[in-house]
């Protein structure tokens, strides 16, 4: 059952970002604003380069699974993402990773996350959330992006710390929090 499902299709999605040690950013691409090239509250040192190119991308959100859970599905391919850099200050991270993918379909239902596709993700990402590492597609994601998965060149599976709850549950939770605080 689909409740207020929203589908977005992009035929070419690309972007690149250069972060200089003096805190300035330079961005190009269709998703420059999404990559953080606007004023933010970062203080400290950061430098690096990141980029992505995706030929076809489709994302559908708000798929009603039951009274409690919603689902999201995203299909991409082919795509190439990569970044190398470091930050130390209000954000702490080290990253050196390339993520080539021929095709990938990933989704989340409640707290369960998974993907099917063909990739050769290689590198490491360390930040305050956790660590992600891979060698030719084999690896682990432990907390990065709120996900805990076992990764292979053919897909991944695991769970996320933030589940896709239906809007009604989120509204009810908000009301309960508001009532509890009075």
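Q: What amino acid sequence fits the structure above?
A:
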């Amino acid at each position: 059952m689909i409740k207020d499902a929203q589908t977005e299709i992009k035929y070419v999605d690309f972007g690149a970002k250069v972060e200089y040690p003096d805190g300035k950013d330079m961005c190009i691409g269709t998703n420059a604003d999404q990559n953080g090239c606007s004023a933010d509250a970062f203080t400290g040192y950061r430098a690096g380069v990141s980029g992505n190119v995706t030929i076809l991308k489709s994302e559908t959100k708000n798929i009603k699974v039951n009274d409690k859970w919603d689902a999201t599905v995203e299909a991409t391919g082919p795509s190439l993402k990569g970044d190398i850099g470091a930050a130390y200050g209000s954000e702490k991270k080290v990253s050196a990773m390339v993520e080539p993918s021929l095709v990938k379909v990933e989704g989340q239902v409640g707290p369960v996350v998974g993907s099917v596709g063909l990739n050769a993700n290689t590198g490491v990402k360390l930040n305050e959330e956790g660590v992600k590492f891979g060698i030719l597609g084999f690896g682990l994601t432990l907390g990065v992006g709120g996900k805990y998965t076992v990764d292979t060149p053919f897909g991944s599976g695991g769970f996320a710390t933030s589940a896709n709850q239906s809007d009604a549950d989120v509204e009810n939770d908000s009301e309960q929090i508001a009532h509890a605080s009075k």
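Q: And what stands out in the fold?
A: Residues 167-181 form the longest helix (15 residues).
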